[in-house]
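Suppose you are handed only two things: the residues of a chain and a line of SMILES describing zinc ion. What would the bound structure be? This form records exactly that question and the answer produced for it, so the two can be stored side by side and reused later without any lookup.

QUESTION INPUTS
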Amino acid sequence: MTARTMRQPRVKPEHRAYRTVDGHVRIGSVVHGIGAEVKDPGGWVWTLVEAMDGSRGAAEVVAEVCRRHAGLPAEDVVQAMADLTAAGYVEDAGAPPPAELSERERERYGRGMTLLRWMDLEPRESPWEPQLRLGRARVLLVGVGGTGSAAARDLVASGVGALHCVEPDVVELSNLNRQTLFTERDLGTPKVDAALAALHALNPHPAVTGERREVRGPADLAALLAEGPPQGGPGYDALLLAADRPPRIRRWANEVCLATGTPWAEAGYRGPLVAVGVFTPGRGACWECLRDAEAERRDLRLGPGQDEEAASPRMDWNPVNAMTAGLSGSLLAHAALMLLCGIPPVEPGCRFGLNLMVPGDPVMQRSERRPDCPACGTVPAEDLP
Ligand SMILES: [Zn+2]
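ANSWER OUTPUT
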C-alpha cells in the first residue's frame, strides 16, 4: 500500500499531528518508538497533515496543499505524503470493512483493532489486516497454569484463530490464587476441560481445543507441533511455552522449534521478576544462546563446579500470585501478537519484562547468535528452516 493507491488518505486518529510552539509538526502520538517530529519552516507540512482527513483522494490532497502554498512544487507534497505513509502514520479511510469478519466480530474486536493501528507502522490496505492475520493464526499452548491460563484468556479475547491447549494436571485449591480461568467448582477437574469451558464462554469464535497430555521429552513436543490443531491440518504458526516442568522443557522447545522453523515464546516469573523470551529460528539468538550470554552477563562469581542453583534457589513450592502470573501470561500473549502480526516488529532472540521491586527497572536480555551455541551454533543460519 502506498500513498498513491490510497482512496482517501487519512492520518490515523491515534497518530493525530499537532504543532509545537516552534512550528514543528509532531505526528504519531508522543510515544517513544512511534512518534516523530518534522521541521516545517514553510508551514505546508501542517497543511498537508490537516488535508489528509479522509475526505479527499490523494490527488485532491496535493491540489489543496499547492492551492494554499503558492509556488510549492507538487512533487514535494507527493513525496512528503509518501514518506508519512511509509512511516505508518496514514490509513485509507476509503477501505471497505473486511468481509471475513461479521458485524458482531467487528464490534467485539474494534477497540483492539484501534490499538493495533496505533502500534502498527506498516502501511496497510485496511486497518483490520493485523486482526485478520490473528484470526487466521494457529497457536499451540503448552501449559495452562498461571502463565498459560492468562495467555489463553488474552489470546481468545483478542480473537486468535485456533488455540490448542496441552496440560496434564487437575485444578487444585492452591492454584486459585492466580489461575483465574478456574473457579471453586472446577476443583479436581482436568485443567484442560475447565479452561476450554471458560474460554468458550469468553469468546465462541476462536477454535479452542485441548488435550490432557504430559510432555516428557522433545519427541512429545515435536509430535504435538507436527499434528497441528484437531481438524486443522499439520503445523502451527507459533508455539507458546507456559510450562516449567520437566525442568528441561525450554531446552526441548528450543531444539524442536529450531528443527521445524517454528517461531516461539516462553514466559514466566522468578519472584518479582516477570519476563517473556521471543525466538524466531534463523533470526537472532536462540533460547540457548541467550541463556549462555545471560549467564556471562550476570557474572554470578560461582566457584568452579558450583551449580547455578546456588544463586537462584529452587523451592518445592511456587512463590507466585495473580499479579505475577497474570503479567507473565499477558506478556506471552503479547509475544504471540508480535510473532503472528509483526506488531510491534519482532526483535528475535531477546527477553523482556519487569522487576516489580524497582519500578522503571526493566528486564532486558539481548544477545547475538553465538557461533559456539550447542543448540544452533553448529547450523549455519542459511541452513535453518
Ligand atoms: Zn543458539
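WHAT STANDS OUT: DSSP finds eleven helices and 13 strands in the chain. Residues 285-286, 288-289, 369-370, 373, 375-377 surround zinc ion (CB under 6 Å).
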